[in-house]
Amino acid sequence: MEKRFPLPPFTLETATQKVQAAEDAWNTRNPEKVSQAYTIDTEWRNRSEFLKGRAAARQFLEGKWVKELDYKLKKELWAFTDNKIAVRFEYEWHDKAGQWYRSYGNEMWEFDADGYMQKRYASINDVAIQEEERRIK
Question: What is the dihedral of CA 48, 122, 118, 11, to 10 degrees?
């Protein structure tokens, strides 16, 4: 398996690069591309859902972006250690009825030695907003 740079142990610079790479990938809304950043046996908690494996993550993302239309994400590095990164994030999206939301949350990430994310734990809350209240475009 090839390496996904930057690799742990993280520095401020490499942790920031990893967060930006994740933001950029998720903003493509491409489940196949995004899922490639995770180990084959990745472990996720997303809200109240528990997932195991890259294929399950890809399937989850396919459903997510069918529901969360015009999704746009911003991530911010919160903290890091050797092979772990904590981020805060917010993203905006609308449903099929046209209702806009801003979703806020925190993620805890753990990486393997090759730079793939092996654990992703996300806590997320949604707030309904008006379209004119959007901040992320």
Answer: -170
Q: Who contacts 109 (Cβ-Cβ below 8 Å, separation ≥6)?
A: 84, 85, 86, 87, 117, 119, 120
Across the beta sheet with 69-80, the strand order is 49-52, 38-46, 117-129, 100-111, 84-94, 69-80
Q: Which CATH architecture has domain 12-133?
A: Roll (3.10)
Going from N- to C-terminal start, the domains of the chain cover 12-133
Q: Which pLDDT tens digit goes with each residue over 64-122?
A: 999 999 999 999 999 999 999 999 999 999 999 999 999 999 999 999 999 999 999 99
